[in-house]
Amino acid sequence: MIILTGYEILTQIYESFNSEVYKGIRSLDKQPVIIKVLNKEFPSAQELTRYRQEYNTICSLKFEGALKAYGLETYNRTLVLIVEDFGGISLKKRIEEKPLSLKEFLVLAIQIVEYLGNIHAAKIIHKDLNPANIIFNQTTGQLKIVDFGIATVLERENPSLKSLNVLEGTLAYISPEQTGRMNRSLDYRTDFYSLGVTFYELLTGRLPFETNDAMELIHYHLAKQPQSPAEINPDLPLFLSNLVMKLMAKTAEERYQSAYGIKADLEECLRQLETQGKIETFALATQDLINKFQIPQKLYGREEEIAALLAAFERIATKKQANSYQTELMIV
Fold it and tell me: Strands of 134-136's sheet, edge to edge?
């Protein structure tokens, strides 16, 4: 437990390899706060820079209801980030306590998409969207997305191939292009893939790909189609299941292209549920209008070649799982 001048530390709520997170109270005005501190005695310059960037990113969010940053303070040889505590719990904890009803999901999903759209409008890519980073106050109905530790203040980023141990993002929710193994630029649509995985978990109570092997999980994100949510939960409306699968498309061009388009479809689902008691299937993404030019990065007219590359990847991944190590050379 840290001792920070000007703050009363109440309880630790989270701990990871790099950080510790506490609930606290600012002594000056009794304001509830969340305190995030690097838990290393001698943090690297890169880790300190990341904390400064996270503080600056949160400060740059100017839309109504945005997460507020109260300060970035020095503690011994490390940094402490102080943000608002609006009395919420993560959606991860919420669904562990009790599954969401269909209406509860739609109301929350619309709020999440609207908040994410505001983040993207500020030219920020979150890159770590998952239920643990979505905080909801069940009393006030207020919802916020938190943890901008790896967020990018760019419209596009070129991810590099990295070791599994240093990949940015939470592996179970990471987009194929964010793995650095697709030779593709990364833009705001990486968050739509993570949003799809989040919706999948909220609707079914499980992840689309469940494995403890990191390499296998990356292979699934790159090449394997998950079961549709409707196959797991037959009571789920087919349209909603199709919406989630579109968000989780392997290439960004096949996903929704705007938060507005996702929100419009979710709002129509909610309208039908409230007026008709059910959700009928209708055309996906009819209002999914993009307001900026995007150069497609996918290959056109090379289906056979792409299939051959994916088949080779499948063969090598399967052999690795069977501890039969073998290499192949593909000449393109």
Answer: 89-90, 134-136, 143-145
